[in-house]
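Duplicate of earlier report; Guanidinium exporter input re-posted below.
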Amino acid sequence: MPWIYLIFAGLLEIVWAFFMKKSVGFTLFVPSVITIVTMAASFALLSLAMRTLPLGTAYAVWTGIGAIGAFAVGIVFLDEAVNPLRLAAAMLIFVGILLMKVSSAA
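Output:
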């Protein structure tokens, strides 16, 4: 169950990062509310996952999911640049997440 909490926490991190961008520095009400609510939910799920998972593993996987997800969302929905070096960096993050999962006993 802690891995499920962690995956959903990471997915919510993608959501709040996207809506934080859309809030234009918290000047737009609806995106700001979505940011705050999903951020709180993401942190809550991360804390549940951390009951069992090691701190380093949980935090690295959570931020990795958020980083790769925000990278992908930025490319798909915000027309951000994609180039081989950025793709290689995202792949390295992904490999790091997999290694953290494989090396975790929980």
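The helical segments are 2-22, 29-49, 55-78, 84-103.

Merging into the original ticket.
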